[in-house]
Each structure stands twice: as structure tokens, then as C-alpha cells.
Amino acid sequence: MKRRGFIISSALVLSGLLCACSDSGNNQAGGAGVPAAAAQQAAPVGVVTLKKDTFPVTTILPGRAEAFQTADIRPQVSGIIREIAFREGSEVKKGDLLYQIEDAPYVATVEQAKAAIAKAEASVPSAQSNFDRYQRLVGSGATQIEFETAKTTLLQAHAEVESAKATLASAQIDLDHTKIVAPFDGVIDETAYNVGNVVAANQTAALTTIRQLDPIYVSLTESSTNLLRLRDALASGTVRGEGADVAFRLILEDGKEYAQKGKLDMSKQIVSETTGTFIIRVLFPNPDLVILPGMYVRATVELGAEVGYALPQLATSRDATGRLTAQFISADGKVETRVFENASPSNNSWLVTDGVKDGDQLIVSGLQSIAPGMPVTPVPMKINESGVVVAGEQAAAGNAQKPAAQ
Fold this sequence. Notes:
Protein name: Membrane fusion protein (Multidrug efflux system)
Shape: elongated
GO molecular function: efflux transmembrane transporter activity
Distance between the termini: 76 Å
GO biological process, one term: response to antibiotic
Radius of gyration: 44 Å
Pfam families: Beta-barrel_RND, BSH_RND, HH_MFP_RND, RND-MFP_C
Subcellular location: Cell envelope
Oligomer: single chain
CATH architecture of the largest domain: Beta Barrel
């Protein structure tokens, strides 16, 4: 009985000690947690102050480069290729010799035609003299039939001369065609035939191909729906455009902007029956042959101008429904998410007309470390011409190369 009482008493003492330790720990934890919950640090974020202005309305269209001219080179006379005078893949000028076909048979034909002319011309004086004699004697010793015969003989002599000259001209053309020359300036492909190969006049297989690459065409595609929407905007005055004088700027496959500007080629503007896209052909100068046929490019087109606010693309995103969103600083210094139903592309920005007012601060850097409702401290920033965030003083000083930390 004494042993059982001792065990119960020990258990009560141990429970009391555990309760005391638990209360002490709770009091210490509560005292340390009060200051941490009371103060939340405001994160610094880069901002730009928005102001209403007139901005260009642009669109980016995908496209493929096409040669300005293409010619498949085929022989016009038959023979053996004696010489190939070009280097494959090189530039050639109009009139440059490409292939030389063995010309000895054609030279002989030309000489034969020249001899035929000389023979025909030799018979003309005799026929002319005979005609003149019968013309004087007609009615006084010569019959009319003899006169007519002499006249016919003279005419035939002249005709034979003209026929021989035509044969010579044809033979000379064939001789000239033994030299195959470039029809225009361009870049020549590899040759499909070699020296010693026999070729035939107007054969199906081409000897090689020449492409003129300066200037060069770029065929762009745009949705016909967007085309109609643009026309409505131009008609209503919402967008002010310059018509056919719009300039096209090209973005190459490596992301760099092409130095030359293109002009609309009015000869090809059609809607594809299979895809429903509007095909636009643009002509670009290509003096350094930077653009090659088949190359994928993107063209930025300035369609007009619109009054609104420009939101840099790097500061925007899309929600699950595809609507444009951006983070702003509210009046109480907290992060505020705004959604824009309508936005038009404008170079490196989105152009909006609703949901923004002059003086609003758009967050452009530090976006990864903030959330809606979080207090933030604004740090003035600028966006340079390349769409990169830089410190405000850097942009003012002209040093806009170093991106701001995100």
C-alpha cells in the first residue's frame, strides 16, 4: 500500500514539472513572435511612371525570303560541254560566260552559209544584165514571154541571196548559243553537268540555276481577320496610318534587326484559300546577301499611331484566359494586379487605352519576389530603346547598356 502511494505521488510531481516547462516555453515563443508579425519589410521594386502619349501601332508578321528572280539554265543547242567558266556558289554578272559547248560544227555551218551567200550573189549580175537586155528589146525583136522569164530569173537570184543570208543568221544564232551566259546578276548553284557531258537543245534537265538576291522578296503572312480589324480601325480614326508608304523592319533568325527597310510590293497581295491568311510580299535591298532564299524572318510593320499608354512587354504577362496583366503600385504602396482586355502591339510594348492614368507606377523589375497586396518601395527606372530596364540615372546619362537586377 505504501509502494502504490509512492508511485502516484511521483507521477503527480513529474506532471507538474512538465506543465511548468511547457508554460515557460510558450511564454518565450510568444514574446519572440510578436515583433516579427508586427513589421513586414517593404521590398524595393523598379518602376516607370506612365504618361499618355501617341505611340506607333505595330504588328510582327512571320515570313520567308524568296529570290527576286530565278532562272534554270538550259542549252539551246546540242553538243559536248567543252568548258565550265564559273565557280559553284559564286556571284555572277549579267553576260558572264557559264558554259562553252563545242562550237566547231557550228562554226563550219556559219562558213557554209557565208559561201552560199557568195554563190547566190554571183548569179545576180548575170540575171540583172539579161533582164535589162530583154527590157530594151521587148516589142522590137524580143517576145513578152522572154522578158517575163528574164524578170523571174532576176527575182529568183535576189531571193536566193536573201535565203542564204537568213541561213547565215540562223547559223550565227546557233553558234552564239554555244556560249551560255548569265541572264542577270545573281548567285549560281552547283552544276549538274561536267566537262565532256553531252547536252541537248531545250532538254528538260537544267544545267544549273541562277537566283537574283539583291533586291530580295519576303513573303509575310497575316490573318485576314486581323486585316479587316485594322481596316476598321483606320476607317474609324482610332488608328492613323500612312497607307502603302508603311515601312517594314526585318528581324533575322538570330534576333538582330536588319539594317535595310523594305517596301510593300503591290503585285502580290492575296488571301490563301487553304489557310485563310493574307499574303504580303515586301521588297528589301540585300546588297551584302545577308538574306537568303528560304530563310525564316519576322517583319515589324508600323500600321499607324494611337493615343494611349505603353506597357513594356517585359513587365507584362498573360493570365489563364489569355488576358494581359501587369503589376502596379497602388495608392497605399502595395502591389496591385491590373487586367487589360484590349492591347495593341507597339514595338517592345503593349499599347492600352483603359485602366491606366497619368502618373501610375508600373513595376518593371523585381517581379519575381513580389505578390499582390505586398508593400513595396518604388525605385525609378527607365526602359531603353532595346526594351531593357536600366537605372534612371543611366538612361539620363546615355549609358543604357547594363540591365537592372531583377
